Amino acid sequence: MGLESLFLFTLLGGMAAGAYAFETCFQRTRTGERPWLVPLVIVVLFAVGMIAASTHVQSIPRALASVSAGTVNFGSGMVKEVAASGIFFVLVIVDLIITLAKKSSPFALRVVAAVAAVVCMVLMATAYVDVYGNAVWSNAPATVLSFFAGDLAMGLGLCAVLGSVDVTKKPALYALLIVDAALAIGLALEVAAFGGQGASPVTQAVGLVVAPVASAALALAASKLENKKMLAIAMCALLVIGVAIARYAFYATCAM
After folding, report:
1. For 68-75, which contacts have Cβ atoms below 8 Å and span 24 or more sequence positions?
2. Half-sphere exposure (CA, 13 Å, Cβ side) for 228?
3. Residues above pLDDT 90, as percent of the chain
4. How far apart are CA 27 and CA 39, in angstroms?
5. Which pLDDT band holds residue 198 (cuts at 50, 70, 90)?
6. Which of these, 27, 122, 46, lies nearest to 91 by C-alpha position?
7. 13, 49, 140, 201: which one has the fewest Cβ atoms less than 10 Å from its Cβ?
């Protein structure tokens, strides 16, 4: 498994981190009969992403041996990304265990974990900027905006599906429109970056229309729709599909 492993890691892990950050912002205290649901889904998604990412190194024992031998560049973006991911994952597991036991968890713990989630998303976005052999990847404005805003947008969509955020209400709606706007700018910059390197920008254009544009239009029409659950599912699906299309093409440029 090659770059597909990184694709799954940043897609699933990024969505999980984005969901945790938004849930912490919009829900100080978890309510309902299943307060453990959001942290459980986040742990599962992030775990699957990390398992996929581990296949990228091909040999985990050899990777660990490289660490102990001091041959790993701890200043590289990808190493920092792995470290931040591990910290976030541990914090979310602790949050989940406490929530399962007590039906709630300390808000201070969730804030620390949310900060770790943001750091994780930022490092996911910046890890590819220093890969100078690929002009598309090293285009910092396009890469950072499309990754970071994409993770936040997918995370907010997941929160809406799980019922921890109501995108029909102004605070969450405004947040969605802001991250959608940032994602649209990032993908538009990627369209230009792809074209500048002789690659077809069609996938990024499709991702732009499917994710930020269509999801924003759906959210703005929310007042005319009666089934809020289906609205959340449709909006989340648009965001995930659109980001996935664009991000898969992003990784495919490595073969150019």
Report:
1. none
2. 10
3. 64
4. 13
5. confident
6. 46
7. 140
